[in-house]
Amino acid sequence: MIIQPSKITNFDGRCRIAAMVELETPGRVFTATGTAQQELWIDWPADYFVPDKPDGGPFALICLSVAMSLKERLVIGDPICQSLLINILEAMEIYKTDFPDICDVIQLETVTYHRPKSETQRVGSFYSGGVDSLYNIAEHKRLQKQYGILSVTDLWLIQGMDIKLSDDALWHQTKSLLSDPEAWSEGMCYVDIRTNARDIHDKFAPWEQLGFGPILGGIAKCFSPIVGTALIGSYAKYTDIIPHASSPLVDPMWSCGRQTVRHFSCRASRIEKIETIAGYAPELLQNLRVCYLNPEGAYNCGRCEKCLRTQMQLMLCNCLDECKMFDQPLTPQSLQKLQLPWQKKNHYTWDFWRDIQRACQLAGHDDFDRILSKQLRRNKFSRLRKRIKAAVRSLRKSTKAAVRSALRRAR
To answer: Which of the residues in the chain have pLDDT under 70?
Structure first.
């Protein structure tokens, strides 16, 4: 995989870095272009920051897991930081160990540079409006009050990840709410970022195994000269961590000489995170956004697994009444259509719901507990039946193929 030297341009008030990316495996093409070449780009408001020279770091991280999935070498057209190169070598071994069937360690071809660590005191956090990203802000407020540590100063909201580049209506709705100065502290710098990085990934690198983590790391690298610390929100406690595109083991590998990247923080459960937000930055809950389905432009549909899960957690923290952004109210009957992903692949989702059920039992929410207990059993056996049926179909198919092959040889 070849990353051509990048270009920095300014247009219509936005700064854009872009590089042409080329696949080397015969027959492989990008979906968006139908060819082996596609431009990879990231842009943001020009008044936030304009790089003084091209840097290969952002593009190297974004393309890394794609090249690993295709087992191609990665040729990086611009220089990258020496410490980032060392970290990439470590990250490849982590991904290879975690996902041996879908990726491999590859050869890197690049040149490096060394620059001293930035003296900036700024802390950037990826900001989606969800619980994990709001916790980063609230927990840093708590830690600043208790220990005097630096608070979050830069909020990065991205179009092109869970909000598609083609969904401008949802993007503008979300951006207008999350960029409301009343929703975050004075002195914070809000930055709306756009990228087509997911177009590069989706066809080749599984999203939850190799996808979004390196992209976030690459975007953070765009701002390493001005933001010394970057936070990527955690998804679970250490006890529930599984191999993942973004984890406390791999995310620090996106650090470079100028910038430290942290997976923040696996110390707290989702319910504990909500309690911290409610205690130290309750104003952030008014525009909480967690939904990825967004039917008919809904901000939070109130019906999908993540909406139901978050509403339950908010209820258990006595915060649900403060969140008016769900299109459907939460009732015990809301859980009757709960659909969970296959347990073996996404067991941390099941861990969330088991924690919720235990909390319901402790809090005396018997009506929710009864329905949730029934739904967890139903989902478990439903998924198991589907797996068994798929295995039987596969066995029948392979048996038929073996019989046909034997008949051909007999003739």
So the answer is: 181-186, 342-346, 381-392, 400-403, 406-407, 410-411
- Three-class secondary structure of residue 114 per DSSP: coil
Rounded Cα gap, residues 66 and 304, in angstroms: 30
**CB of 85 within 8 A of CB of 29?**
no
The C-alpha atoms of residue 169 and residue 47 are separated, in whole angstroms, by: 24
> Over the range 5-25, which residues count as b (16 or more CB within 10 Å of their CB) and which as e?
ebeeeeeeebbbbbbbbebee
Does 397 map to a domain? Answer: no
**Residue 409 token pair:** 């040889």
What sign does the CA torsion over 337, 341, 343, 346 have? negative
Residues 208 and 119 in one domain: yes
Six-digit token pair at 160?
């092109």
59 backbone dihedrals φ, ψ, rounded to 5°:
-75, -35
Total-model pTM: 0.89
- pLDDT value at position 102? 94
Q: Count CB-CB contacts under 10 A for residue 410.
A: 6
Q: In 3-state terms, what secondary structure has residue 124?
A: strand
Here the tokens at position 352 are 């969330």
- State how far the Cα of 410 lies from the Cα of 24, in Å rounded to an integer: 42
3-state secondary structure of 198: helix
Peptide bond into 128 cis (omega under 30): no
Number of independent structural domains in the chain: 2
Is residue 331 located within the same domain as residue 242? no
Domain residues for 45? 2-264
Sign of the dihedral defined by the CA atoms of residues 369, 375, 376, 381, in that order: positive
Assess whether 353 and 256 both reside in one domain.
Answer: no
221 with 93, same domain: the answer is yes
User: Got the DSSP string for 314-332?
Assistant: HHHTT-GGG----SS---G
